[in-house]
C-alpha cells in the first residue's frame, strides 16, 4: 500500500524529468551521465546533513531518515502497526518520521502515552485530518476530525446527553433487545450453514444505532431506500479504507490537485452514496415536522436524535454555527464510528474463542450457569458474565480495532519524553505495541483472559497499559453503547448456538492494517442449536 505511494511519486518524478534525456545535444553523453549521478547524490547528501543537524538542533525524537521530498514514505510497509513497532525496537519508545512535508511522531510506551493523553491532553487535543477525512465530513464539521474548539465541545455534549447518557441507554434497552433477538432468529433460520460473523454484528449494530438516531432501521425500510441501506456496509468499508490508506495528497500538498491515487475522487463518490441516504431521511423528517406529525422512537414519547438536532437548528439564529451540513456530518460520524468498530471486535472475539476450545468451554459453562439453556440472554445478566467480559478485554488487548487511536496534533510546540514535538506534528499513540509490550504484560502474545479476572480493569483510559477506546478528552464517547452491544451480541450468539469452523476453509488470525484494523480473512462459522427449546429463538 505504502510502497504503492512511493512508486507513484517516483513515477511522477521520472515523467517530469524524462526531458533531460531527450535534449537534442547528444555530444557529451559522458558528462550528462556524470551529472545525472552526481547532482542527485550531492543533493541527497546535503539534504541528509541538513536534516541531521536541524533535527539535532530542534531536539526532535530520533528516527530513520528517508529521501528528500518524500521522506520515509517508500520504506513503510502495508502493516503499519507492525512496522512502527519494529522501528520503536530500534529507535526507542518515541521516534519521529518525516513523511513528505509532514513530521510524524509515534509514542510506543505507556508512560509516553500518559504524557500525551493525560499530562498534556489539552495541548494534544487537535486532529489534523487527512483530505479523505475532510471530504466525508464536509471539511471536518463532525466530531472525530474537528479540532478542540467550541463546535467540537458542543457536539460531544449533545451526543453524550441526548444519545449516550445512562437515562437514554436505559430507555433504549428494548430496542437493543429487539435487534439482538432478530439477529439470533436470523441465525437460527440458517442453522447448519455458513455465517459471516462480522456481517451479523454489523447489521445488528447498524439497526440499533439508526433507530436511536432517526427512529427506524434497515429492516423497517423497503424499496429503493431499504436497498440503499443494504449496501451501506460496503460503502462504510470503503470510507474506512480510504481514511486509513496513505494519500500522497496529504504528504506532499502541492501534488494534491492531481489526486494521483484517485483517493479523493473515490471518497467523493462514497459521500454521494451516503448523502442519498441522509438526504432522504432528513427531507422526510422535515416534511413530517412541517405537517406537525410527531415521529418519536419506540413510542415512548421521547424525541430521537435527528429530531433534537433539527429543533436545535431551528432555534439557532445563526445558520453558520449549526446547519444541515453539521447535522449530516455528525450523523455520518456516529453511524460509521459505531458500526465498523463493534462488528470488527465481535468478529475478533469469536475468532479467538473458536481458536481456543478451552476458552469456548469456559464461556459457555458460565452462560449456562448464569442464564441456563432454558432462557435467553438479557442485559441484567451482563454483570455476572465475568469470564466473557475478560475474554472480550483480552481480545481488545491483542486486537485493538484502532491500533493508533485517532492521531492527535499539538496546538503549540511542547516536550514529550524530553524531546521537542513541534506544533502541527501528527502524533500516533501506538496502543497495539503498548498492549503487547512484555514490560506491561507477561507472555504478551498468549491469549489468556484470566489476566483480566484478577485485577479491576475498565475501558476508561486511566490505565495506560490498556487503551482500546483511547483516553483523555478525546476518548471514545460511544464507549457505553459499544461495550453493551458487544457483550449483548456475543453472549447471545454464544449462548444460543454451538459454533464450528467450516472444514473447507482455512482458519487463521492474521490482521490487515487500516484505520480500523480487521481480520485479514472474514470469519465464517457454522451454528447449531444449543438451547433446549426452538421457541427460545423467536
Ligand atoms: C467497540 C466499539 C468501539 C471502539 C473500539 C471505539 C474506539 C474508538 C477510539 C479508539 C476512538 C479514538 C479515541 C482517541 O482518539 O483517544 C474513538 C473515537 C470516537 N468514537 Fe468510538 N469506538 C467504538 C464504538 C463507538 C460508538 C458505538 C460510537 C457512537 C455511538 C462511537 C463514536 C465515536 C466518536 C464520535 C469518536 C470521536 C471522538 C472525538 O474525537 O472527540 N464509537 N472510538
From TrEMBL:
Q: Which UniProt keywords apply?
A: Heme, Iron, Metal-binding, Monooxygenase, Oxidoreductase
What Pfam families would the database entry show? p450 (PF00067)
Gene Ontology MF annotations: heme binding; iron ion binding; monooxygenase activity; oxidoreductase activity, acting on paired donors, with incorporation or reduction of molecular oxygen
Q: Which cofactor does it need?
A: heme
Any idea which positions bind heme? 476
Family label? Belongs to the cytochrome P450 family.
Q: What is this protein called?
A: Putative cytochrome P450
| Top-level taxonomy | Eukaryota, Viridiplantae, Streptophyta, Embryophyta, Tracheophyta
Amino acid at each position: 500500500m505504502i510502497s504503492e505511494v512511493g512508486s507513484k511519486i517516483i513515477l511522477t518524478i521520472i515523467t517530469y524529468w524524462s526531458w533531460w534525456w531527450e535534449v537534442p545535444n547528444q555530444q557529451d553523453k559522458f558528462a550528462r551521465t556524470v551529472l545525472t549521478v552526481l547532482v542527485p547524490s550531492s543533493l541527497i547528501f546535503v539534504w541528509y546533513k541538513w536534516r541531521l543537524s536541524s533535527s539535532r538542533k530542534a531536539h526532535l525524537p530520533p528516527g530513520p531518515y528517508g529521501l528528500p521530498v518524500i521522506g520515509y514514505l517508500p520504506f513503510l510497509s502495508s502493516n503499519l502497526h507492525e512496522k512502527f513497532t519494529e522501528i520503536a525496537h530500534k529507535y526507542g519508545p518515541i521516534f519521529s518520521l518525516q513523511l513528505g512535508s509532514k513530521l510524524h511522531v509515534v509514542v510506543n510506551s505507556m508512560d509516553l502515552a500518559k504524557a500525551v493523553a493525560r499530562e498534556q491532553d489539552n495541548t494534544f487535543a487537535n486532529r489534523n485530518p487527512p483530505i479523505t477525512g475532510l471530504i466525508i465530513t464536509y471539511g471536518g464539521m463532525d466530531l472525530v476530525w474537528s479540532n478542540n474548539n467550541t463546535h467540537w465541545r458542543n457536539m460531544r455534549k449533545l451526543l453524550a446527553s441526548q444519545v449516550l447518557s445512562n437515562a437514554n441507554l436505559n430507555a433504549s434497552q428494548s430496542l437493543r433487545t429487539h435487534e439482538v433477538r432478530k439477529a439470533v432468529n436470523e441465525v437460527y433460520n440458517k442453522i447448519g450453514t455458513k455465517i459471516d460473523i462480522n456481517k451479523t454484528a454489523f447489521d445488528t449494530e447498524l439497526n440499533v444505532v439508526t433507530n436511536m438516531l432517526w427512529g427506524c432501521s434497515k429492516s423497517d425500510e423497503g424499496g429503493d431506500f431499504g436497498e440503499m441501506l443494504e449496501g451501506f456496509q460496503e460503502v462504510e468499508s470503503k470510507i474506512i479504507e480510504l481514511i486509513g490508506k496513505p494519500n500522497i495528497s496529504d504528504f506532499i500538498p502541492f501534488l494534491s490537485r492531481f489526486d494521483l491515487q484517485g483517493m479523493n475522487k473515490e471518497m467523493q463518490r462514497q459521500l454521494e452514496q451516503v448523502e442519498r441516504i441522509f438526504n432522504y431521511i432528513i427531507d422526510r423528517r422535515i416534511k413530517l415536522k412541517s405537517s406537525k406529525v410527531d415521529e418519536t422512537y419506540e413510542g415512548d414519547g421521547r424525541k430521537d436524535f435527528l429530531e433534537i438536532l433539527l429543533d436545535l437548528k431551528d432555534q439557532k439564529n445563526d445558520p453558520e454555527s449549526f446547519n444541515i451540513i453539521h447535522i449530516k456530518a455528525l450523523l455520518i460520524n456516529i453511524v460509521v464510528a459505531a458500526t465498523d468498530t463493534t462488528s470488527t471486535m465481535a468478529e475478533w472475539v469469536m475468532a479467538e474463542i473458536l481458536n481456543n476450545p478451552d476458552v469456548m468451554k469456559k464461556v459457555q459453562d458460565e452462560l449456562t450457569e448464569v442464564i441456563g439453556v432454558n432462557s435467553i440472554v438479557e442485559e441484567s445478566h451482563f454483570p455476572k458474565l465475568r469470564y466473557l467480559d475478560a475474554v472480550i478485554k483480552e481480545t481488545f488487548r491483542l486486537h485493538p480495532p484502532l491500533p493508533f487511536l485517532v492521531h492527535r496534533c499539538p496546538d503549540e510546540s511542547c516536550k514529550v519524553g524530553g524531546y521537542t514535538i513541534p506544533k502541527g506534528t501528527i502524533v500516533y499513540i501506538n496502543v497495539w505495541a503498548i498492549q503487547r509490550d512484555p514490560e506491561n504484560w507477561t507472555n504478551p502474545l498468549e491469549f489468556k483472559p484470566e489476566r483480566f479476572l484478577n485485577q479491576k480493569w475498565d475501558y476508561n483510559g486511566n490505565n495506560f497499559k490498556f487503551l482500546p477506546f483511547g483516553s483523555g478528552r478525546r476518548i471514545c464517547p460511544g464507549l457505553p453503547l459499544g461495550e453493551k452491544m458487544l457483550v449483548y451480541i456475543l453472549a447471545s450468539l454464544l449462548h444460543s448456538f454451538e459454533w464450528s469452523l467450516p472444514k473447507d476453509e482455512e482458519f487463521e488470525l492474521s490482521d490487515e492494517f487500516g484505520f480500523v484494523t480487521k481480520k485479514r480473512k472474514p470469519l465464517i462459522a457454522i451454528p447449531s442449536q444449543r438451547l433446549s427449546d426452538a421457541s427460545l429463538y423467536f
